Amino acid sequence: MLAHLPILQVIVPLMAAPLCLFLNRSKLVWLFALLVSAFTCANSIFLLQQVMSSGTITYQLGGWDAPWGIEYRIDELNALLLLIISTIGTVVLFAAHTSIQKELAEDRHTLFYSLYLLSITGMFGIVSTGDLFNVFVFLEISSLSAYALIGLGKDRRALWAAYQYLIMGTIGATFILIGIGLLYQMTGTLNMADIASRLAEVNQTRTVFAAFVFLIVGVCLKLALFPLHLWLPNAYAYAPSIVTAFLAATATKVAVYLLIRLSFTIFGIEFSFSSLPLQNLFLVLGLVGIFAASTAAIYKTNVKHIFAYSSIAQVGYMIVGYAIQTPTGLMATLLHLFNHALMKSALFLALGAVVYRIGSAQLSQFQGLGRQMPLTMAAIVVAGLSLIGVPLTVGFVSKWYLLVAAVEVGMWPVAVLVLLGSLLAVIYIWRIVEIAYFKPPLPGREPVQEAPWTFLAPIWALVLANIYFGIDTRLSVQVAQAASQSLFGINP
Amino acid sequence: MLTAATIAILVVMLLAIIRCVVGPTLYDRILAFNMFGTKTVLLISILGFLMGRPEFLDIALVYALINFISVIGVLRFSDSVEFKHSLQQQAPTKEDKQ
Amino acid sequence: MLLGLYNYWIVVLLMMIGFYIVIAHGNLIKKLVGLTIFQTSVFIFYISMGNVDSGSAPILAEGVARYSNPLPHVLILTAIVVGIATTALGLALVVRIKESYGSIEEDEIQIQDQLTEDKTSC
Amino acid sequence: MSLILEIGSGLCLLLGSFICLSGGVGILRFPDFYTRIHAVGVTDTLGAGLILTGLMLISPDGLVLLKLIMILLFTLFINPTASHALAKAALRNNLKPVLDDSSDKGGDKPSKL
Amino acid sequence: MLTGIYGLLSASFFVVLDAVDVAFTEAAVGAGISGLLMLAAITMTGRSEAPKRHKPLLALLVVFITGGMLIYGTLDMPYFGSFDAPVHQHVAPRYINDSMQEVGVPNIVTSVLGSYRAFDTLGEVAVIFTAGIGVLSLLSLPLRRRSSKLDESSSENSSNSSQKDQMHEQHMVLRIVSKVLIPFILLFALYVQFHGDFGPGGGFQAGVIFAAAIILYAMLFGLDTARRVFNQSIIQLIAAIGLLLYASVGVVSLFNGGNFLDYNVLAADPIAGQHIGILLIELGVGFTVTAVMIIIFFNFAGRREAQQQATERNSPELNVTQANSTEQKGGE
Predict the structure, then answer these.
(1) pTM confidence score
(2) Could you tell me if residue C60 is inside a domain?
(3) Is D107 within a domain?
(4) C-beta separation of E200 from E107 below 8 A
(5) Do C57 and B55 touch (CB under 8 A)?
(6) A302 — phi, psi (to 5°)?
(7) Could you report the predicted ipTM of this complex, rounded to two decimals?
(8) For A160-171, what is each residue's pLDDT tens digit?
(9) Does E256 touch chain A (CB under 8 A)?
């Protein structure tokens, strides 16, 4: 059975999703979904171990060899992403039962879990496949379920946000499809490794160049890179809290993965960075994204909005690391993928707990919560510190490597700007802290209780992970280093 | 002979499209649409013979059915109350939602 | 000489029409229609890519020497399904939007959103 | 034998095409909805029938013949029904037959679909 | 409705380009289902449209950049229809030349879809399933409300139901013709389902046709009648079963010692195994597609009826005028 690990990762949640409909009892379905995602979590740990010890795993679906059939190909990068998605998926799901009871109608619960599992399936599929068209199919699974999940939000603006996301997402997916078509036309194959090997002959053609542009733009739409980010804030702000916590931690990460996979594995480093002024473009876009989004976050009054904009800013950091295009820079990006998933899911889950108690995520409603919900607010503070990049938290580790990477290649201005961007994060985190701790509780509101333990357990698990991986960086750094080196073709 | 028939049908399809675009009433459009569908069925059958692959007839068959269903669908939906009163109705729905 | 590429230019034209509708129209359903056109243009692109001169439909039969490339057909079958799924979901969203906003025009919805946002922040 | 069949099918096809064409002219030139539906309803059924018969005469084997007959049957069923339903629906929605001026009540709808 | 024509046209286009299977699907989907869904949505949202357009300049710019990019890309492409293009040289020849020995199905599209790239198809089924669940979660009405509404309509709102009956009476010819046609359509759907190995067709197309027949029934005989046969929760389960059937074929091959979805191990003879595998997964596809299409349509139509009833109840004067107008029409 050990050889089948890669496919089990995808197929188990895929089969569990329809099974959910058979159970049809909210609590039962929740337990079942939790079990399934815990299984995928364990599975991904095994996979990571296997990849780290014995190198890339391939798996031929249907028993057909690679360019003819579809192939699964798991290397360090994929395994890392799988681990992130499955862990976050499981931890977030733990709180789901409590949260959606407040936020969703009773008869939607089964459908919610089913969609949630499908969404996880889609992401696993994107990450583990080695076939370009398969990426498109699973991309659609994950995004369709994401649209539906966002549309489940209570507020009517959730519908509008989901619609916008749908339009943008479909345009992005269609662009990706065009790009895949152009590539297929020039190489006659859909397998990533095969494309990469055959692309060398036709590298100079304009068609390949167009394919590259379409793929990059499509992925950037999904990635919510700065000028294409318009769908993200509302989608995150009005979706059910659980959905926000899950999507914020994973959806953009998968897009970053695609970007890395496309430019490094398929097109190759030389092509990716020589045909377009990609390095400068992404550096500028990333930095502008950091500043614009952080500034926007400062002026927002809905805490979910604040963190959504901060997500866009964090995507900016990842893109900066990617654009530096040294192994260290890429390593910083990968570390930030991992770390950002940890802190954002903790933040949004804590917000979910707040919404569960006070029914709103408006900043003005937070008054006095510091004393009434001490554990939850403490979690927000710690995760917020991590977001800023204070030492002893994970945020510090990835920013440190980002700075090192920038300084290594002599990009001092970039390093300075990254530091300045972190200062902006201080401001918006401080606003929340100030209102929550230094203002008296709202008059006329009954004292708010601490969040239930089903919330606190996953939140604090994530927060402790934030601190743990901030102190003991061996595991994350080791994996990220291995992944980035293998992408650059350096054998450790 | 087959080619001649193909050309004739293509011309008729063009005429149907013109009527469909020009209108002026909804029913004219549905009529032209129906006609267009029938002509497509014929076109596909003839094309099948032209290319020597009679498998295409399956598609023609599907077309005939789908065409019927969609015309019925258009009719049923255009019969519905909202369709006729869509303009008057907007005001009350807005009020009772808010 | 460039006439050999005419099929792609038709596709590009269709694609531009569809894309323009998606971006420029304010009516939500029209946007979806544009999206459908956009997607269909991509389908045609794939299919024309798989076509071979004097080839025949890819169903094995006697006396046929050349077949069209079946792989794009397979891909597009999948893509069509994805397209209809997206359309259905989008229409469902539009219906819900109409119910809760009373309108399916982009700017009216944005105005209403602005109003609610102002109300909550005051 | 095969020659006769081919001539027959050619005749059927030609006649069918002609009838279809006349229907096409009819839908474009006739003044109002009811005359148009008349043109289309009659020519569509007859033309389609003729063309399909023409194809049947040159069909290579039994399965193809069967499918053609099925299509013919469907057309014979569907076309009159659809025309009937359409005319009835138009009548019920107060679309009056007008000869000179087709700017009647139904015309002012912004029919864009 | 122009979308319908568009669907038909693009389908004919596919026929010209030898893509039989795709034409088949596009015929069923583009001309049929998606048009119907659009219509259903339009009737619910109203047809009025603001004429103004915003930011046309920016939009034009974006569109032209994209189009220009594509045209730029096409310049180096192999010519339309040329046999030497890499597309036809690398992967595809194996499908064309060897699929008969390896899979044993004359329709190459089916063999690629069902066997070589079966996992894509599994993904496709999952997409459809997702869409069904998504529509359900967005549009399905709460159970309580639905039952209470049924009570009301049966007890107090009898005028409404009689009006509805009248509407159905008026479609006498349609109903009888459809009654004759529907069995044939269902039969044809089955033919498409099982003939997919040899001609164009397969699970997806068959599912759409099957669903179309049922939608036709629902349109002519009322949603409630159709609901009585196809209960909401039962269809949901059918959709789930289809996906499960597909996936479990893969799991069975896992247990038989092959890779996921490797049909060769399903039977002693690889070709027979391939046949069984393709048959089963096509069945799964057919189940899911049928069920999901029905779910989508029923939910749209059910929502519409609910809306209609709500507005009728809330605005009695409008109701009266409507009744008057129908009486007038009946008189004519």
Answers:
(1) 0.87
(2) no
(3) no
(4) yes
(5) yes
(6) -100, 125
(7) 0.86
(8) 888 889 988 998
(9) no
